[in-house]
Amino acid sequence: MTAPALRLRQISKRYGATTALDRVDLEVYPGEVLGLVGDNGAGKSTLLQVASGAHRPTAGELCVQGRPVAFGSPRAAAAAGIHMVYQDLALVPTQDVGTNLYLGDEPLRGGPLRYLGVLDKRRMRREADQALARLGVRLGPTSRPVELLSAGQRQVVALARAAVRVMAAGHGVLLLDEPTAALGPEQSRQVRQLITRLAGQGVAVVVVTHDLPLCFAVTHRVAVLHRGRKVADLPTAETDLDAVVGWITGARPHQP
Amino acid sequence: MTAALLFARDRGIVVLWGLLILLMWALGGSSFASYDNAVLILNAAAVTAVFAAGIAIGALAGVLDLSIPGTAALAGVVCARQLVDGRGAVAGIAAGLAVGVLAGLVNGLLAERGLNPLVVTIGTLSVSSGLALVVTGGLPVSGFTDLEFLGTGRPLDIPAPVYVMLAVYATGWLCLTQTRLGLRLTAVGGNAEAARRCGVPSSRYRVIGFAGAGLCAALGGILTAATVAQADAVVSTGVLFDALTAVALGGVALSGGRGSLPRVLVGALVVATIANGLLIRDVPPYWTTVATGALLIAAIAADRALSVALTRRTLEVPR
């Protein structure tokens, strides 16, 4: 049995008197898609913020590939292979697709040009094309500025950017916050396919969503949060929409 | 349709310049369309273009530097002071350029402390023009000949400032399009928060943007001093308006992240061509000032109209 790509053990997060998360255990394995659902205020966002290094938990422990870690910042989490894809996308609209994929990690030319910081644009474009092809993503030329892409295509670029970094490291976890919010049906389908394909490449994916059809379409396992506590965590195939809605609203008792 | 909008946004300025040349040719005849007059336009555009490069580099990084005339005046008089004191052209130019970079760093570090960048640069505009007066004691600095090669020299029968202008644009263009520095600078201008999340230290690059603007401003100030063989502490805001117009005509988004230096160069040539054509037609020069201002507003209006039209086309969810 491989170690979980990411494991949260007895995580609690309190803001003053409010308990946003109460002793939550969660784990996601390489190649697995975990759906994280719950009502507004159930603690989904807080959980993502803790996992992505934006906030420190009040109590509990995070483990990456079996090793305990503590993240001081999102950058530290990214260095450990935990990548958050933000809801507001955070792309540079005026730059092309290739640049957005490699910004912060740009390939440079060899030799003395390296010291001048001269970019290897051809390599950047080629690697971008290869990475997108491996993800089965078709966006047209990677030299297109992101501002000329549709909302769905931008979401795909944002996902691909995190995926490229995860695949370069050979392992990692993607945290997706509402990946299909504000997308049309066709575009959601593209994003769904991309998530499935990423998992097929061994990436662990956590999807936070209100979109239950999406959750049932792409996840292997689903965890439900209710008022800061995990009330259910089971294989998607062993449950159904009614049961999950019941756990989300609190109408159904805690999973045994 | 999208392609037509993109063409208008990215190539429109070149078309506009072509039409303008035809118009001025029709109005001014052979006194406009001559080699000598073309050289005159290039020379007139040179100083404006160098200032415009500074504003454009700042704008690409998402910062708008209005202190450029003050930095230019201070750099010009500091350089002239060195020359009058007999330290030679190299020391003079180096001192002037250092003043420019320093002014840019001050602007940048203040703006990155969360102060409103526009107001900061207006403040430093006042500070640097005051300092320029302190250096000169209120009288123009003259009596130096070391800068003739930069100002009135004419290698190959083309005025030296034109070479300086071309060198600035070639270097700037290479830096912005071929290096990591340029890529990150424009990325930070496009979306500083996104760049930061990718591990790019955004505020450092914005400070670099200010420093680049200061460097170009200082070079423009030295060039001005070289062409008239005299450095004056009097700040000319006219150059700021001309340069800003050239930048806007060149399609540089003043909100940051988008634009290209070669187009800014064409923008500066448009401004110079209009001034030249009006002069040839004996229109009083005041009208040139009016035309430049109107052009600035027209340029940002056109850029906005095109951007809105483009966004509308791309953000529509296809059904």
Automatic annotation (TrEMBL), chain A:
**Any idea which GO molecular function terms this record carries?**
ATP binding
Q: Which residues form the ABC transporter domain?
A: 6-252
InterPro entries, alphabetically? AAA+_ATPase, ABC_carbohydrate_import_ATPase, ABC_transporter-like_ATP-bd, ABC_transporter-like_CS, P-loop_NTPase
- What Pfam families does the entry give? ABC_tran
What keywords does the record list, in alphabetical order?
Answer: ATP-binding, Nucleotide-binding
> What protein name applies here?
ATP-binding cassette domain-containing protein
Organism per entry: Phytohabitans maris
**SUPFAM superfamilies recorded:** P-loop containing nucleoside triphosphate hydrolases
UniProtKB/TrEMBL annotation, chain B:
Primary localization class, coarse: membrane
Q: Which Pfam families match?
A: BPD_transp_2 (PF02653)
Transmembrane regions listed in the UniProt entry: 12-32, 38-59, 90-111, 118-138, 158-176, 207-228, 234-254, 261-280, 286-306
Localization, per the record, is: Cell membrane
Keywords (alphabetical) are:
Cell membrane, Membrane, Transmembrane, Transmembrane helix
**Protein topology in the membrane:** Multi-pass membrane protein
Q: Which InterPro entries match?
A: ABC_transp_permease (IPR001851)
Q: Which PANTHER family match?
A: ABC TRANSPORTER PERMEASE PROTEIN YPHD-RELATED-RELATED (PTHR32196), RIBOSE IMPORT PERMEASE PROTEIN RBSC (PTHR32196:SF72)
Q: What is this protein called?
A: ABC transporter permease
Recorded source organism is Phytohabitans maris
Upper lineage: Bacteria, Bacillati, Actinomycetota, Actinomycetes, Micromonosporales
